[in-house]
């Protein structure tokens, strides 16, 4: 019987690599990570071709660890995730030197900001509590008292305001730290930093972080300094649940969906371009039903990456694609998709955006349709300032296109 020592298999997103895998690893990857890594037999015993499908990070299999690096430099990945996050300095490189660089850098930054928050003091606020006992604490809960007065007259139902740190924003911080600490993927120094912050959360109850945990937070009620921390918590939670569902073991993988990262980066640029323009709205990942209601049949719903509307009417549709655009050809299935979006929504302009080091713009006037198709690239490499300029130019370009459409010159 062959032996398969525990080892790290280094991969690059969308680049195939042939390697040996233990049967237990093959079974695990097919059961849990079909959406993240394509696995094909080479016809040789225990030898397979692995191709990551647009996710980067680390997967822990029974007998090996898959380290998936991005095609772009690691620093640029963090620009895509959130350009406002103060990410620690990372050399401009494609191949990370350690086994868990992406998670270690995000978790390390989280530990650093968490230490600052603990030193400044956790946010506290008044929360109404209910209590039952022989003494009145606060004010009498009259409805509860009337319901049980005939049964237990000696018990008083009270309501009082408690000035506490046991708040949703702190619960998310605590749960994120605890989830990181049970992971086997963190560097020891990052884990040590998180453990030093734990005593500050003694009075904060645990919670489960789900897909709706962050949407329930009220932005205007969040104290100063919490937004970067909670943004990091969201990034970390999405990495644990790349397809929206948690794993069955503590942090068996940490994966960043590059398609979503690129979509989010693009969305920030377009939203910023239309900020303060009252007649224009930008809808991101909005599910739209495009058919007239019909009995006994399902609705037809679409969800483009971005819809730019004027006075409630769709004018421009954007679809982001994290793949390489050929130098002299369109990607037919992408064109079909974005044209279908524009046609169903009644938009005048359909835009496909791909990553690219050099900005390219191809514009098409269709012979038998009023839809204008534009295919362009967005620079995602270089310095933080260069990426920010490319994103700003994209937003300004969308504005110009829409101005042309509204004035009838496009």
The largest sheet has its strands arranged as 11-14-15-16-18-17
Distance between the termini: 69 Å
- Compute the average pLDDT: 84
Give the H and E element order. EEHEEEEHHEEHEHHHEHEEEEEHEEEH
Count helical runs.
10
Radius of gyration (CA) equals: 26 Å
Based on the coordinates given, report the CATH architecture of the largest domain.
Answer: Alpha-Beta Complex
CATH topology of the largest domain: tt1808, chain A
Large-scale geometry: globular
Describe the largest sheet.
6 strands, mixed
Structural class: alpha+beta
Q: Please tell me the total number of domains.
A: 4
Strand content: 15-25%
Tally the beta strands.
Answer: 18
Helix content: 25-40%
Description:
The chain has about 400 residues and is an alpha+beta fold. It has 4 domains: about 1-70, no CATH class; about 90-125 and about 165-240, no CATH class; about 125-165, no CATH class; about 260-405, tt1808, chain A, CATH 3.90.1570. The protein is about 35% helix and about 25% strand. It is built from 10 helices and 18 strands. A 6-stranded mixed beta sheet has the order 11-14-15-16-18-17, sandwiched between helices. The N and C termini lie far apart (about 70 Å).
Keywords:
410 residues, 10 helices, disordered N terminus
Summarize the topology.
Layout: E1 7-12, E2 17-20, H1 23-32, E3 37-41, E4 47-52, E5 55-60, E6 64-69, H2 74-81, H3 101-120, E7 125-133, E8 139-140, H4 142-148, E9 156-164, H5 168-181, H6 188-197, H7 226-240, E10 253-257, H8 258-273, E11 280-284, E12 288-289, E13 301-302, E14 306-310, E15 313-320, H9 332-345, E16 349-355, E17 361-365, E18 372-378, H10 384-407
Helix pairs in contact: 2-8, 3-6, 3-7, 5-7, 8-10
């Amino acid at each position: 019987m062959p032996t398969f020592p525990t080892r790290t298999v280094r991969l690059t997103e969308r680049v195939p690599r042939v390697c040996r895998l233990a049967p237990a690893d093959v079974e695990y990857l097919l059961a849990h990570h079909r959406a993240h890594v394509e696995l094909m037999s080479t016809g040789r015993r225990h030898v397979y071709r692995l191709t990551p499908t647009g996710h980067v990070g680390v997967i822990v299999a029974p007998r090996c660890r898959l380290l998936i690096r991005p095609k772009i430099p690691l620093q640029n990945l963090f620009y895509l995730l959130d350009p406002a996050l103060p990410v620690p300095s990372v050399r401009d490189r494609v191949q990370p030197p350690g086994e868990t660089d992406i998670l270690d850098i995000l978790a390390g930054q989280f530990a650093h900001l968490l230490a600052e928050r603990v030193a400044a003091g956790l946010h506290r606020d008044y929360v109404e509590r209910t209590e039952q006992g022989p003494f009145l604490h606060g004010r009498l809960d009259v409805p509860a008292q009337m319901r049980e007065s005939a049964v237990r007259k000696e018990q008083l139902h009270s309501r009082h305001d408690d000035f506490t740190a046991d708040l949703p924003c702190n619960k998310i911080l605590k749960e994120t730290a605890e989830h990181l600490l049970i992971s086997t993927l963190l560097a020891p120094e990052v884990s040590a930093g998180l453990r030093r912050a734990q005593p500050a959360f003694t009075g904060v109850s645990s919670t489960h972080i789900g897909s709706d945990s962050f949407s329930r937070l009220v932005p205007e009620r969040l104290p100063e300094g919490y937004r970067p921390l909670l943004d990091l918590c969201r990034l970390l939670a999405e990495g644990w649940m790349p397809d929206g569902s948690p794993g069955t073991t503590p942090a068996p993988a940490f994966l960043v969906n590059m398609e979503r990262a690129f979509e989010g980066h693009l969305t920030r640029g377009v939203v910023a371009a239309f900020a303060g323009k009252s007649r224009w709205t930008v809808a991101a990942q909005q599910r739209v039903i495009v058919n007239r209601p019909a009995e006994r049949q399902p609705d037809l719903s679409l969800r483009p990456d971005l819809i730019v509307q004027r006075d409630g009417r769709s004018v421009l549709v954007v679809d982001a694609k994290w793949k390489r655009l050929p130098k002299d050809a369109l990607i037919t299935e992408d064109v079909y998709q974005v044209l279908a979006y524009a046609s169903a929504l009644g938009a005048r302009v359909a835009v496909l955006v791909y990553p690219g080091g050099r900005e390219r713009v191809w514009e098409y006037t269709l012979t038998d349709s009023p839809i204008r198709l534009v295919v362009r690239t967005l620079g995602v490499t270089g310095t933080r300032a260069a990426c920010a300029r490319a994103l700003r130019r994209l937003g300004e370009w969308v504005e110009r296109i829409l101005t042309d459409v509204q004035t009838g010159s496009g």
